Amino acid sequence: MPSLIPSLLSGHHENLLSSLKTIERHHLSWAHLDVMDGHFVPNFSFGPQIIKTLKRHSSLFFDVHLMLEHPERFISTFIEAGANLLSFHVESQAPIAATLKHIREQNCATGLACNPDSPEELLLPWLEQVDRLLFMAVQPGFCGQTFRHDVLHKIAKIAAIRQRRELSFRIAVDGGIDAITAEKCLKAGADVVVSGTSFFDPVKRRSLRKLLP
């Protein structure tokens, strides 16, 4: 897993393939794709057909973040579309154990996401069953929000538990990521940050150069 994963939600929606090529041109190997249903979050974004179309033209690892009220209903659909890692929210209506099992059985990496207002304790029962945790540092649904610094102590707490239990899951942070907040996240114990606005803005991207290969 790289230290930086660009979020396609902030890419060029009139030509998403060109945004994937921008990621590849900077020698990054992952792309983050946010899927929104208009219920769990008040916005809509990529569906499985768009992901399937993009996957045909890219060898990038597709990190798919399901912001869905009932993600368990769509696991097979998004894996068939090309997801390599599927994250869904601990706050969703999904039966968490069964959904993680379903993802693993289809040879896809598993992830759980957590909103900024949710206690990190919600994640504790699942630490041995996930490949990655995704901490949202903004309220999910829209780009360009301000980073929530109160998320840092949650990252640090989960990172300490991971070390103490000698677990292998990775920690990612998404939302409001720029050069300064990325450094704070990595210092707190995160392994990777997801950046949309800062990565796809050529001027702001220069400030992220320490995270680029």
Anisotropy-based shape: globular
Helical/strand content category? alpha/beta
- What is the H/E order? EHEHEHEHEEHEHEHH
User: Major sheet: order of its strands?
Assistant: 1-8-7-6-5-4-3-2
Tally of alpha and pi helices: 8
Tally of DSSP β-strands:
8
Helix content: 25-40%
* CA-CA gap between termini: 12 Å
Described by strand count, sense and barrel closure, the largest sheet is: 8 strands, parallel
Low-confidence stretches: none
CATH architecture: Alpha-Beta Barrel
Summarize the structure in short:
The protein is an alpha/beta fold and 213 residues long.
Describe it.
The chain is α/β, with parallel strands linked by helices and 213 residues long. It has helices at 16-25, 48-55, 75-81, 96-105, 151-165, 179-188, 197-200, 202-205, and strands spanning 4-6, 30-36, 61-67, 85-89, 109-114, 132-136, 170-174, 192-195. It starts with a strand and ends in an 8-residue tail after the last helix. The chain has an eight-stranded parallel β-sheet. The radius of gyration is 16 Å and the shape is globular. Helix 2 packs parallel to helix 3. It contains eight helices and eight strands; from the N terminus they run E-H-E-H-E-H-E-H-E-E-H-E-H-E-H-H.
Characteristic terms for this protein:
213 residues; alpha/beta; TIM Barrel; eight-stranded parallel sheet; 32% helix
How do the helices and strands line up, and which of them pair or pack?
Layout: E1 4-6, H1 16-25, E2 30-36, H2 48-55, E3 61-67, H3 75-81, E4 85-89, H4 96-105, E5 109-114, E6 132-136, H5 151-165, E7 170-174, H6 179-188, E8 192-195, H7 197-200, H8 202-205
Parallel strand pairs: 1-8, 2-3, 3-4, 4-5, 5-6, 6-7, 7-8
Helix pairs in contact: 2-3
